[in-house]
Amino acid sequence: MALTVYVLAALVVVAVADNIPYTPPRPSYSAPAPAGPAQYNFDWSVNDVNSGNDYGHDEDRNGYDTQGSYYVQLPDGRLQRVTYTVNGDSGYVAQVEYQGEAQYSAYQPSPSYRPTPGYA
């Protein structure tokens, strides 16, 4: 009998409860559109003698025309330089150049490893 009174009281509370009216969500924030065509230039490089890292990049952009270059010191001693242009009509056009001669270390055979003998 107590369970019936409890369930009936719970149903009455649910029926009498105030319904919260529906409100649409607030409008979300959107990022502003760019004011005009992009215009920038940058230049950076790394030259660390201790680790052998030597590379860099520079770029200039004015509107839809972009031009720049980047370079990297290759492990074989050559310097690879890529000069590129980008525009709306022809897309990305790159010219790759190598400076210097490739230098390879002398061949040294690796030691051969033999399995250890098994003992009974």
TrEMBL record:
One CC-aspect GO term: extracellular matrix
InterPro entries: Insect_cuticle, Insect_Cuticle_Struc_Prot
UniProt keyword Methyltransferase present: no
Swiss-Prot/TrEMBL keywords: Cuticle, Signal
Alphabetized Pfam families for the sequence: Chitin_bind_4
Protein name from the UniProt record: Pro-resilin-like 162
Recorded GO MF terms: structural constituent of cuticle
Superkingdom of the organism of origin: Eukaryota
Signal peptide: 1-17
